[in-house]
Amino acid sequence: AQSVTQPDIHITVSEGASLELRCNYSYGATPYLFWYVQSPGQGLQLLLKYFSGDTLVQGIKGFEAEFKRSQSSFNLRKPSVHWSDAAEYFCAVGGSRRGGADGLTFGKGTHLIIQP
Amino acid sequence: GAGVSQSPSNKVTEKGKDVELRCDPISGHTALYWYRQSLGQGLEFLIYFQGNSAPDKSGLPSDRFSAERTGGSVSTLTIQRTQQEDSAVYLCASSLEYYEQYFGPGTRLTVT
User: Fold this and answer.
1) pLDDT over 60 (residue B34)
2) Which of 1.20.140.150, 2.60.40.10, 3.30.1540.10, 3.40.1190.10 is the CATH number of A3-115?
């Protein structure tokens, strides 16, 4: 069965500092990997995705993530955070079967706090 | 363009009552997904539709849960005889390409 681990429940970063959120996945085949962000009372917004090809993927809002197969990781990074980045971040994995019958498996989320 | 919409945004119901939650996907999206988000369980996948058919209903938490999709568009998630453990945010997503899912704002269900 597929699973996602986000080891950090909370992370506090100063505004303007760099950010890295960790994500480790378990999946038997080639994974499709995603990062979503959720602001309070809002739905999930897709930040970026990895399907294949270049292992460094760029997303919206200045975020990027790097797929490392050897470490089963897909960490999210941003060079300089803004106060508006404070939110809950979810890593998710999906299988490579067509059809999508198993949906996405999400991690428990990392709550990002931005200090002024 | 318009995103995924869900209604109602909030629903408070008494234990034992039935509820219906509605999802309007992005126009043209063939796939539609339902998830549940709760403090204890995080985000759980419930069911997926390709067109009007749901190939696998095993993710539904119990036989009190059912879902349908008509006309390849709107979907409803029905919970019969609601229980307190059904309290959660129910999220709907749709996609054109497999796995690039776009989420709605959710319906917050509170069972009293």
Assistant:
1) yes
2) 2.60.40.10
